[in-house]
Amino acid sequence: MVTHMKEARRMPGAEWLKNHPRWLERAYLFSKRIIMKAYPVMKRIHPRFANWLMVRSEEVLKGWVFNCQMCGQCILHSTGMTCPMNCPKNLRNGPCGGVRPNGHCEVIPEMPCVWVQAWERSRTMLIFADDIKVIQPPVNRTLQNESAWVTMIEGRDVQTPKGWGWDA
Ligand code: SF4
């Protein structure tokens, strides 16, 4: 299987943060409130700069904390604040059947299974703990490298291409 995942980054403090997702839940809600207000204003003033800023800030900040792969349709709050795109199979609805007895990945044996971590972390969340049970659509590759904040504000993160037969 060919995977296109960026090499796993283990940035200082990132694992601690992900293991304490209650902080990240609050940070997510706070950021969402700010960005929902600020982005439309920035877009009116300078659309290209606004979009560039959103993409770059996601690449840097979410890259640091979550090893974000810029899928453009973020579901972190539904996955225990663990990026599902770090799963080599890019699964969005739980683990494959190949999880090892020690909870590690079938494809990359030295890596803990993303979905084992997602489930365990989600159990400690206060606000979004049960969102992990929501069935997610397949990854829409047409959104790759876009800002997930922007696609969320524009409602494109929950739209799927015609023919998929998926109702968001
Ligand atoms: S935008 Fe996609 S790749 Fe980035 S953290 Fe969210 S789910 Fe993961």
In terms of topology, how is this protein built?
Blueprint: H1 14-19, H2 21-45, H3 47-66, H4 114-122, H5 148-153
Bound molecules: iron/sulfur cluster.
Strand count, sense and closure of the main sheet?
none
Uncertain residue ranges: none
Give the helix level as a range of percent.
Answer: 25-40%
List each distinct ligand once. Answer: iron/sulfur cluster
Number of helices: 5
Secondary-structure element order, N to C: HHHHH
Summarize model confidence as the mean pLDDT. 92
Structural class: mainly alpha
From the spread of the alpha carbons, the general shape counts as globular
**Total number of β-strand segments?**
0
In percent, how much strand structure appears in the residues? under 5%
- Terminus-to-terminus distance: 29 Å
Give me the Rg, rounded: 16 Å
Question: Care to describe what's here?
Answer:
This protein is mainly α and 168 residues long. Helix content is 39%, strand content 0%. Helix 2 packs antiparallel against helix 3. The protein starts with 13 loop residues before the first helix and ends in a 15-residue tail after the last helix. The mean pLDDT is 92. The structure holds iron/sulfur cluster. The site of iron/sulfur cluster has 13 residues, from helix 3.
Summarize the structure.
This protein has 168 residues and is mainly α. It has helices at 14-19, 21-45, 47-66, 114-122, 148-153.
Task: List key phrases describing it.
binds iron/sulfur cluster, 39% helix, mainly alpha, 168 residues, 5 helices, globular
